[in-house]
Amino acid sequence: MLFARRAAALALALLLAVLCCGCSQEEERPEYADKTIKYHLDTEPRTLDPQIAQDSSSLLVIQAIYEGLARLDENGDPYPGAAESWDANADFTQFTFHLREDAVWSSRDADGNTIPVTAHDFVYAFRRAVDPRTGSQTCEPLYCIQNAQQIRSGELPVESLGVEATDDHTLVVTLAYSYEEFPALTASAPFMPCNETFFQSTSGKYGLETETVLGNGPFRIRNRYAWDHGKELTLARSSSYTGERDVIPSTLEFSIGDEADVSDPIAALSGGTVDAIAIPADTLDAARANGFSVTSFEDTTWGLLFNVSAIYQDSVNVMSSAEVRAAFVKTLPREALMEHVPENCSPASDIIPPLTTYCGQNYRELAGSDFFAVQDDTAAANLQPALAQLGTTMPTINVLCPDDPETRLMVNEMLTAWYAKLGYYFNMEPLPEDELLSRVQSGSYQIAVYPLRPSADGPDQILSMFRSDSTANYCGLADPNYDALLDAAQSAGGISGLESLKAAEQYLNDQFIFYPLYYESRYYACAEGVSGIIFRPYGAGVDFISAGKTD
What is the 3-state secondary structure (H, E, C) of 414-435? Predict the structure, then answer.
């Protein structure tokens, strides 16, 4: 009963508390500081629960209102966040994080006292992320922690996770394998802390409303009315933040969805509707002509993804056969397809994008490029025997693709080639991107032009999407031999794992799981006078902590 009363009191206090926001620094602020930064979110944040959020709008806001053990600087390198320092053992299989003793949550308890952020909050968050009852679709970055995968699959209890609070301000994390870059991972959403008492008090609504959000980051939701769902969300600088860097802007104003007039992003930037925004490729010239700064990342690989599950819609799935997939891939007219690469995209020669790094070096330079897709029309002769072995015939197949003019032309080239060389006519089904993603992620497809967008840098981030137990394994691949290659890379650790990663990528090539077509860049523009906003590749969000602007 005492716990319940305290939880209720805490929840009530957090509902009513509206803390003033200001700068804790006494020195003179630069001219560009203390400004309101306006940014547009394409969609409503679905949840501000860091352990389960997966849409880009939610993750962007979470990066502002929470802080992990580390933060990332403009180069993507970790620097102290909620932890003021950390150290590792000799083989980087165990890290000890020393939390700031003055770190507190953004709201106070019922008596007006600050609530400290402790190592126990991180233990609870990490355990919650991998607990199968949570159902997190984004917990895979935690799989490097000892026993995390076994807990997620239900083989071990959550208490066996390799994380321990030795006292309120010391967190020890034991890894399943050597991982020198682990601190950088702790800046991502699933690693954010969670106050157990507050979480329990929200009765299943954690992260869904202002009253059920408790952050520890540089910004907080300004007041109980500042999240107007589907319209706007306003954050204010947190007066309780004690992090490594000074927080430059006073306010972040996010417009949401179609309520804001940003259909013309160049006009929105010019008119002050937004200070920064993601822009489509066809506006690049206009953005630069207006003097806007543009940041871009080539971090997405689009390609043909095959559903390799044994059964599709209660029947034998013809795409479960590697011989069938080979007939489809090897009869593709590569040169003709590449004539229809969408504007501001580039032909993809590998599954893993060219700028991906591994152990601080370019992965493609380390691994080389052994692109498999050499046209070989003789593969068509194997189609009928493969179908006979499956005991089935060729069904009607719709090829899902984004509703983009060039991609539609590319898919049309595929359909024409398949009709000529395989003797079957298939259909094209163009879809808006959100619907395309939904169809693939629900398994309602056999062939789709689909984007691989890893959540972080590194070849393992894409390759792990095809693991048997991966929540991002939308193709249905279930091969212990492939999983063993990834396990071997993890066990070897560091540069020693390169050969296993190369073998895993080659496996996907040889088994015709994913046929790369083109690399896509994403673009962000800032208005004149706006500086300090850090855009991150691989869906890692936007950091506004150092953002400022001159009038």
Answer: HHHHHHHHHCCCCEEEEECHHH
Q: Rounded to whole angstroms, how far apart are CA atoms 543 and 199?
A: 25
Q: Look at residue 42 in the predicted model and tell me its pLDDT.
A: 85
Q: What is the pLDDT of residue 448?
A: 98
131-149 b/e with 16+ CB inside 10 Å = b?
beebebebbbbbbbbbbbb
Closest to 538 (Cα-Cα) out of 452, 475, 468: 452
- Kindly report, residue by residue over 409-442, the tens digit of the pLDDT: 999 999 999 999 999 999 999 999 889 999 999 9
The identity of residue 418, as a single letter, is W
285 membership: H or E segment, kind and range:
helix 284-289
Cβ-Cβ contacts under 8 Å for 405 (sequence gap 6 or more): none
* CA distance linking residue 484 with residue 474, whole number of Å: 19
Here the tokens at position 280 are 């489509």
Residue 503: CB atoms within 10 Å:
17
Distance of alpha carbon 184 from alpha carbon 300, whole angstroms: 21
CA distances from 530 to 1, 65, 397, 539 (A): 52, 21, 49, 22
CB 181 within 8 A of CB 459: no
Enclosing H/E stretch for 287: helix 284-289
The contacts found for 51-55 with CB under 8 angstroms, 24 or more apart, are: 51/125, 51/128, 51/129, 51/134, 51/136, 51/138, 51/139, 51/189, 51/190, 51/192, 51/194, 52/134, 52/135, 52/136, 52/137, 52/138, 52/207, 53/138, 53/189, 53/207, 54/137, 54/138
Judged against a pLDDT cut of 50, whether residue 21 lies above it is answered with: no
Cα separation of 365 and 351, whole Å? 14
CA dist., res. 523 & res. 277, Å (int) = 9
**Residues 276, 529: Cα–Cα separation, whole Å:** 11
Residue range 295-304: mean pLDDT, rounded: 91
Alpha-carbon span 31 to 551, nearest angstrom: 9
Reduced to 3 states (helix: H, G, I; strand: E, B; else coil), residue 104 is strand
